[in-house]
Structure formats: structure tokens, C-alpha cells
Amino acid sequence: MSISLSLIQARHIHLAAQGLLRPPQRKARFTDLLNCVRQMSLLQIDTIHVVARSPYLVLFSRLGDYPSAWLEEALASGRLFEYWAHEACFIPAEDYPLLRHRMLSPQAMGWKYNGAWAETRQQEVAQLLAHIKDHGPVRSADFAAPPGQQSGWWAWKPHKRHLENLFTAGELMVVERRNFQRVYDLRQRVLPKWDDALHALEEKEAVRQMLYNSAQSLGLFRAEWLADYYRLKRAPVKEQLAMWIETGTVVPVEVETLGQCYLHHSQLPMLEQKSQATHTALLSPFDPVVWDRKRALELFNFSYRLECYTPEAKRQYGYFVLPILHRGALKGRLDAKMQRKEKVLLIKQLWLEPGVRITAGLLTDLQQAISRFARWQGAQKVHLLNLPAELAAIWPKEWAL
Predict the structure, then answer these.
(1) What is the reported pLDDT for 154?
(2) What is the pTM of this model?
(3) By CB distance 3.0 to 4.6 Å, which of 113, 150, 232, 276 could disulfide with 106?
(4) How many of the other CB atoms lie within 10 Å of CB of 254?
(5) Which helix (H) or strand (E) holds 352?
(6) pLDDT score recorded for residue 249
(7) How far apart are CA 111 and CA 305, in angstroms?
């Protein structure tokens, strides 16, 4: 007998799999951070810091108030590692074998690896590796740009290119973040017991496991959502689904408006529960719930794109707009900036989605979520510039924390 689910049920299952169905029930512990990353499989990295940088914000949305230094501690202690997955990501250490095949074939990594550059500068690369071996980990900032070097986002100095190439090829690993700058060391020093012949997975097996991680972290998914999680190309999704259905790993379900979907077996208890979504949080633009813009539109009816690279005059919303999750639905977005010297969280503008009904519960939940978000970043006050007319009439323009 086929299982039919409402769109609301589908959203709740997905949010439960992502750790966003309910707010945290206790103060976060360090192990909660590690388990949170494992639950998502991947924690995408981005350096924009008009508010908290994305990976910290993704964790805060799930853990609540926690020391941001825990993320650096997890990286420095080897419990997480960095590599290209969805994009640049923090990944649980135990999943290093899943990505190793990409390192061994860096030519397939597109712009992330410049084979011609490496080929024509072998001596410089060898000298850099020798320097790291003799003197320890390095940052790009440790090396001066050559005279006449042009400035600009992609105008990388030679040593920066060498380091990024060696990172993509798996010769270097990121051992810490210093002021969020990558610090690189030799892979052999970070993973002295690693042996490709013994530990590396064949690409076919690695892809199979990445698809499984994706299914588990999504909880409920359409077939076409699966490969994007790890940016897989030519992934055997159809064949894998057939095997999973046979073994009971996933269960086919019919979802209102979405049609044929698949439920990961770990979420089967959700079918017997009347689970209520009670969490309200501000999400990062790089949160797994919204990083696949097509999925966010299909599952949450939320049309979203990041506009920080769009000229200001052409932006529909703002530079770094945060989706608002409220009790199982994406009900709005806001453009915020943390004024760190003044200890003020500035809400430049806030928008509610069409059809969202303003209730006392929504107002209370949203104000509390903004306050928690601001307080965690060290703000002492929230200041709002532009609000929808219906909110401006009843909400304060600022409040102390």
C-alpha cells in the first residue's frame, strides 16, 4: 500500500532530519556540535561576515548559544576536516575516505585545480612543500605578493595558487583557521597512518556512500534532489534507489504537490507521530535547507537566491539575506548587519512571504529568535530600519537585550 503525505508532513520530516524541527532542549555541549555536523553530513564554509559567518550561523540555528571557538577546536583536533563537497565544507573526519578519490584526480575538479599552473611551476611547488616540512604550517598571508601584483578577488598571488592547488590535490590539509584564514600542513603529518592502498575507496563505492549520507540528511527527498548534496556528477541515483527500496533503506511515498518522493528509513517513526514544528530560527543562505534553491522552492514554496554578488541597484532584497524559519515553514527573510563596535544588530529590512498571517505567536517567536541571534553575537541592542507596514505599526524600532 502506498504512503501518502501532506506537504506539511514532508517539510517536518525534512526539518527533523536537519535538526530544525524543534529548538534545542538544553545548553549545547561540544559533542553536540560534532553530532550536528554528522547529522547534516556537510557544513558549508563561506567567509562573508556582515553577521556571523555562515558555518557558525548554521550551527547556531540548531544548537542555540554555543562558543564559536568549538568549530576551530573540532578542526584543530582532527574531528573535522576541510574539503570540496557541496562546496568548500567542514566534514566529519570519518568521511575522509569518501572524498579521497577527488583528491587523487584533481584534474576533474574544474576551476578548483589548475593543472597547467602546477605543471609549469613544479620547482616552486617543491620548494613550498619543503618549506612546510621544515618550518611547519603556513597561511597564504605568510607570503608576500610579487611586485606589480594586481588586486582583486581572483588576483591570487603565486603562493596562494600553489596552496589551493595542493589542497585540492590532497597534498595539504587545513589544520586550523586563524582569523578564519586557512592554515595548511602536510597531509602526511595530519594523517600519518593514512595509506591510499589500504584506506581509499573506489569512486563507485564512495559515491554510493555519499548518496546514502545525502538521503539520510535530507530525510525525505525527490530523486532529483539527491546528487546535488555532494555536487555529484553522473551519480547512479536511479539504480541506487532501486537497491534501497529492495533493502528497505528508503520507502517510496507520494507527497502533496511534489509527487513521487522517498523517505529514509530512519524517519519512519515520524509517520506514527503527530510531530509539531516548534522552532523559529534565522537561517544562513548556505544552510542545507536552502542551499539547493530549486529544492527550497519545491518543498517550501520559497523563492530564494543570494544577491551579495549582484550589483546593489539590481538586488531585489539585500546583500546577505537570511531566511526566516518559523514552525515548519519559511515565512520571511531579513537583511541584517552586525555592527560590532557599537554592539548593535541592525535589521536593514524585513519581508514576510505573501499570505503569511501576522499573529501574536509569530511576532513573539520572531522577536525572540532575533534577540537570541543578536545576543549570541555580542549585541546589546537590536535596531530595525525598515519593516512591513503591518509590523511597523505594532513593533518597536529597537529594543535592548
Answers:
(1) 44
(2) 0.94
(3) 113
(4) 12
(5) strand 344-352
(6) 98
(7) 22
The x, y and z cell numbers of residue 349, run together, are: 529590512
As a dihedral over the C-alpha atoms of residue 136, residue 140, residue 144, residue 146, rounded to 10 degrees, the angle is: 120
Closest by Cα among 257, 268, 286 to 220: 268
Q: Return d(Cα 135, Cα 113) in angstroms, integer.
A: 25
CB 175 within 8 A of CB 167: no
- Nine-digit cell string for 299: 518543498
How many residues are given for the chain? 401
Beta bridge partners of 51: none
- What nine digits make up the cell of 181? 584564514
Q: Indicate left, alpha or beta for 330 from its phi (over 0: left) and psi (-120 to 50: alpha).
A: beta
Rounded CA separation 27/128 (Å) = 44
Burial 195-215, CB ≥16 within 10 A → b, else e = eeeeebbeeeebbbebbbbbb
Residue 87, C-alpha cell as written in the block: 562546496
Distance of CA 344 to the CA centre of its chain: 25
Residue found by looking up cell 616552486 in the block: 124
**Cα–Cα distance between 280 and 371 in angstroms, integer?**
12
Angle, vertex CA 156, rays to CA 151 and CA 160, nearest 5: 140
Q: Are 17 and 264 in contact (CB under 8 A)?
A: yes
Cβ contact 307:318 at 8 Å:
yes
Instruction: Profile the chain (401 residues) by mean pLDDT over runs of 10 residues.
Output: 91 98 96 98 96 97 97 97 98 98 96 94 94 95 71 63 96 95 97 95 97 98 98 96 98 97 97 90 98 98 91 90 98 97 97 94 96 97 92 92 96
